[in-house]
């Protein structure tokens, strides 16, 4: 069970978080249909590092982008997404 | 085994084994007490039902498994070596019929030659039915103990713990490491699976005075360290999260506080593994006979429990440690008739024991299921000794399970000790003491009769089976394990894996490290399922979610209906009514007078800010911006792939404040969707989305006289259809939204949940005054089906487009809503798609969920999503999905339900049966 | 055995407000109006008639009379009432830290979680928000629909704390 | 290659069972094959077997990066059934179920297919209606499905908690009596032996590291044991589909996520068939060795590590004990994880890829084991003829962009929303 260092709350247990989708799957509103469907229906799905969108669902409810390795589960980078926030 | 094996007082703890009343001393394990009482035969092996005794003194015991406890507390497959006797303990042997001494199953042992490893893959052919005939017998012979049938009376709890250092094992190495960390000011947790500190010091007091252990533990406690005995570190997970199982009562023992065990989720800064080492057996013919034991285990029984398991002893070993056992036995009055040392002279020369070098046991003989004679090859010749105990030691295996479970960990081969030592690791973990290195060993000659030399004692796997697997091509270590079931018993190969690996490496012609290892998986030792479930309540880990007005409804003893984790009133039967009768009465009162129901569980979001419309017109596929303040409208939402996944209503409460409602079933999913769109996709928007699902309790009042009821309640202007006003009822501020699901003129009243009861009571008084009544979910289904309103999870099943649901006319012409891109896919507008239709029964009652076929025997062209009877008139109607349904109105089909042997002739019609022009909404 | 009292407090006004634009400017307006700055994440600000507790990056919980908040926010944020859906449960007695470890994954026993601290986490599958009143009391903000079960869970757990 | 029989075992009594031959050879890779199958799991080995036995194409190699049957074939909970709601799925799985019924004789290897019944429990009237709908969809396509009352369910599985005040009271169930379990390892080994006897080369310890291209077309693979040419290359690596397809520049509608399972210590018979539920996500059965085998929700996060996190299995066990309280005092013996290739509508993908000469069989989510015979048979047909069979035609790679997805749960593309 990972210990995920939330940029807002500090290190917290993985069960407080939920994985939503990968960055390469994000469909921006208004994207052209072909590009939107290519992003929605195909994944790099590497056996290594990938950028993933998580949420600290049961903590600060913020959205996070993790760079995480799919064999070792090691998180090499994590940043907060979402609106500009006061410290 | 003849005669008791312990001098002095018999002990005061009463227990029974297979009905025999016996006595034990405090601190005895069941194994120690059985040996003390002269009981050698304690179990039957899994496959051949061979007689088995006690081989070890710890968790690695493969043979001595018993069922202990009574009723729902009964625990099968409990190791007698890992069970401390308590007063009144009831223990029974397993896997034997009619008795332990005379087990019919042992006939399998006689047929052993015809039943090698994997025999079941080569026979029992014929039909699947014929295999099930053989399987019936196999399943009864297999399995060990019996599961209890009564409910478990005890509870199990789970708890988190955080520490800088977790030390596993309170032996000398573990205690020293824990002390050092505590004195350095670190938050320390020390866990020990035994009941006492440093059991190895009790076995070998010459190493260190056992009193040192007590003093060290006390000091650690003073420094704030937490020490847990009878506690096993069972699983090592990511980022140093270790699952630790603590026994508060012995297996089968009624726990003092009602809690049998506690599971700790420990997050440790770093982990120190002081898990010691396990002794290896030797492989020779009939090495599984009761009376053949591991050397250190014998020493433990002598020194810790005062039990001398044999009077005439043969020691067989390839290392020096076994001589300590010889000394302990001699000091306790046993006679060492021979020490068989596999190593050449001068090994053992100065020991003072009758040592035979280059010696390896050949076979054992027995009488009445106990050891009587040992034969060995000494140099060139064969020798024999009468003996009632054979203490064997094939060297030691460091316990590397947790190190390997940590993931990304390496093992290094140590030739001197012929064992794997823990190497580097990805996580912050280190091994100390004999978990990190063990004594060197001499050679271990292979047995001369591999077919009868057992390596996995519980699953009856011999070295002969390993040879057979090799011959048949099962040559990877994983194939070997799965084909022979070696290492798949309850001891998970703790005393068998190394012997098998040695043989496999020999066959592959490589050194053991190259032969490969099987995967180390949690748990280290088996963990009680109830503990893992954290079984405080029988709630399947899913709390019941209660309505704000739960007690108000409960007082009327409704029929409750689950939806997700909620429960909602389905009907309020009166005077012996059944569900259908109550629901029809309730529905009719809504159609003819007025009815009232609880709609609190609807998902509700308050969306406020200048960019509220921009957000709402992304999530909703209909326009929102055109709404005037105080007005609302129906809407629906698409997934990114263009398919409808939810629907609801949107209301403009104020200039920049909207209320969005959507389905109860989809509430959590909608909350995530809205948050993803607002926070991740459009962080720059000036808008707040707040989940107010539970902030408001919702009361719907519907019916021809609903308007009069509302006028009486709120006094001023009652909102017209799809309008909203603020008001107050019973002194509480409320929002009144004029929306209708039932098809009647209706109002949804939202009051702050904590103030809802007086509002409900006021409404109930007003409704009953108008001759109305409460109605539940069942009546609502009748009403909404008749009206043709959709249900998420019914008609909206996540597979249909707006057009398929006849909602496309409401789509926002400007586009830009989530799902618009998905809708462009050609397949979504091709012919042959399922479309929403209404169904009228020509004959019979339409079964909900039935398949729609042109005639019986034809493939299904669609199905019934919702069925009900007309409310005021008679007749069975339904909504459904039908291929190209829009073009097939008037067609006659059959709605067939073979599983319920029901069917009805139906006609395809428009999905609206009641007030199709919508006059009943207008005043 | 540390004794713990678990009491559900009567409903009180609870609002959330979010700042969506010009956060720094709005923060100054708050400091001017309240006399001290908005609490950072994981902290709280106790005022005479109200307490502000921070659980989210852009949202604050306001417990008590929210008078004046909407004006300070102006067009840079909005205020929404949520009190109906929350039950405040006080865990009284020095054992509250140990109690919060039951069925939990958050380190309530850590010294960093001192008086005035706030944290949201998962306890026995339920999303609970915590506010440390003192070393002898902690408030738990529990969703209404789960409140009865959570109070039962804590009451049972309190009997066998470690 | 000696055939297996009880007589063979008796003969072994007199020669210490020394007459048995290796079940499959351990050949060196040849330079060229007509078909290369990447992945030595149940599906890959079955494909090779049917290429050789049905289509007479024997110049085939199965390349396995470690040991055959070591991926999901060796990690699933061995359930076999065809009780799916969507027609393309239940037609496909039913075709497979009929093959299961004769597989042991076909392969002369006892795969222990045991139709002890696959039961889905209903915990409310709406659950029972949903189960009836599933059963009706099956029966209309002549697949066996029966609704059971509370009493029938209680008689079938006496260990179930039938109390009215249970958190999820049991109202009844839907049973497919022809469903059940099979011995997973035996399926891989049986197909391997069968294929090997027909001349297929099964090459273990041989990982594919890249594709050999001629213009657009794939004409071979690079492996850890050298280059191997092929007329057609068939990807059949389940959880690693994304990883292998990427070597050919393909991005798939698949995300690899962790699914955990566990087994208890063995006990005497207590659970007769397969127990699943319409509302709870756990699934339970008892192996022939007496261990209770179960699983539940997936871990819902991407991983190739074949390990999950403990709270997920604990959730599944809590659900299982709510259904079968007697499980409380049994002990979990071992827990493990597999890599499930979660496709973006929950249905498999069997057919050609846009890359000439390269075919794909994957997207099995957590339902691959039961499909092994049907997957092998239809994939072999597709590889032999170049075009899909009518059973796997609906499961083509292009369906996502086209909008013809087959969504059993109706929750759309994101696997963790399932």
Write the layout of secondary structure elements.
The complex is a heterotetramer of chains A (87), B (923), C (162) and D (418).
Chain A: E1 3-6, E2 10-13, E3 18-22, H1 33-41, E4 49-55, E5 63-69, E6 75-80
Antiparallel strand pairs in A: 1-2, 3-4, 4-5, 5-6
Chain B: E1 13-17, E2 20-24, H1 30-36, E3 43-44, E4 51-52, E5 65-68, E6 75-79, E7 89-93, H2 107-110, H3 128-141, E8 155-168, H4 172-183, E9 188-191, H5 199-203, H6 210-222, E10 226-228, E11 231-237, E12 241-247, E13 259-273, E14 277-279, E15 292-294, H7 295-303, E16 312-317, H8 321-331, E17 335-341, E18 355-356, E19 359-367, E20 370-378, E21 381-386, E22 389-393, E23 396-398, H9 401-405, E24 411-414, E25 419-422, E26 429-431, E27 454-456, E28 461-462, H10 463-471, H11 477-484, H12 497-508, H13 512-515, E29 527-528, H14 529-533, H15 550-554, E30 559-563, E31 566-571, H16 579-592, E32 595-598, E33 603-608, H17 612-619, E34 632-638, E35 644-654, E36 657-662, H18 667-681, E37 688-691, E38 696-702, H19 706-714, E39 724-729, E40 732-737, E41 746-752, H20 756-769, E42 773-774, H21 777-787, H22 820-823, E43 834-843, E44 851-853, E45 862-869, E46 876-883, E47 892-897, E48 902-909
Parallel strand pairs in B: 1-7, 8-9, 8-13, 9-10, 13-26, 15-22, 16-17, 16-22, 17-18, 32-42
Antiparallel strand pairs in B: 1-2, 3-4, 5-6, 5-7, 11-12, 12-13, 14-23, 19-20, 20-21, 24-25, 27-28, 30-31, 32-38, 33-36, 33-37, 34-35, 35-36, 38-41, 39-40, 40-41, 43-46, 43-48, 44-45, 44-47, 45-46, 47-48
Helix pairs in contact in B: 4-6, 7-8, 10-11, 10-12, 16-21, 19-20
Chain D: H1 6-15, E1 32-38, H2 42-53, E2 60-63, E3 79-80, H3 87-107, E4 118-122, H4 125-140, E5 146-149, H5 150-156, E6 172-176, E7 180-181, H6 184-197, E8 201-203, E9 208-214, E10 217-223, E11 226-235, H7 241-246, E12 254-264, E13 274-277, E14 283-286, E15 292-295, H8 310-323, E16 331-343, E17 349-352, E18 358-362, H9 372-385, H10 399-402
Parallel strand pairs in D: 1-2, 1-11, 2-8, 4-13, 11-18
Antiparallel strand pairs in D: 3-7, 4-6, 5-6, 9-10, 10-11, 12-15, 12-16, 14-15, 17-18
Helix pairs in contact in D: 2-6, 2-9, 3-9
Describe this structure in words.
The complex is a heterotetramer of chains A (87), B (923), C (162) and D (418). By secondary structure, chain A is mainly β. Chain A is 10% helix and 38% strand. Chain A is built from 1 helix and 6 strands, in the order E-E-E-H-E-E-E. Chain C folds into 2 domains: 5-11 and 85-158, Gyrase A, domain 2, CATH 3.30.1360.120; 14-83, Alpha-Beta Plaits. Chain D has 418 residues and is α/β, with parallel strands linked by helices. Chain D has helices at 6-15, 42-53, 87-107, 125-140, 150-156, 184-197, 241-246, 310-323, 372-385, 399-402; strands spanning 32-38, 60-63, 79-80, 118-122, 146-149, 172-176, 180-181, 201-203, 208-214, 217-223, 226-235, 254-264, 274-277, 283-286, 292-295, 331-343, 349-352, 358-362. In chain D, strands 1, 2, 8, 9, 10, 11, 17 and 18 form an 8-stranded mixed β-sheet that branches. A 4-stranded mixed β-sheet of chain D has the order 5-6-4-13. Chain D has a 4-stranded antiparallel β-sheet with strand order 14-15-12-16, covered by helices on one side. In chain D, strand 17 (349-352) and strand 18 form a beta hairpin. The longest helix of chain D is centred in the N-terminal third of the chain and has 21 residues, at 87-107. The mean pLDDT of chain D is 96. At the A-C interface, strand 2 of A face helix 1 and strand 8 of C.
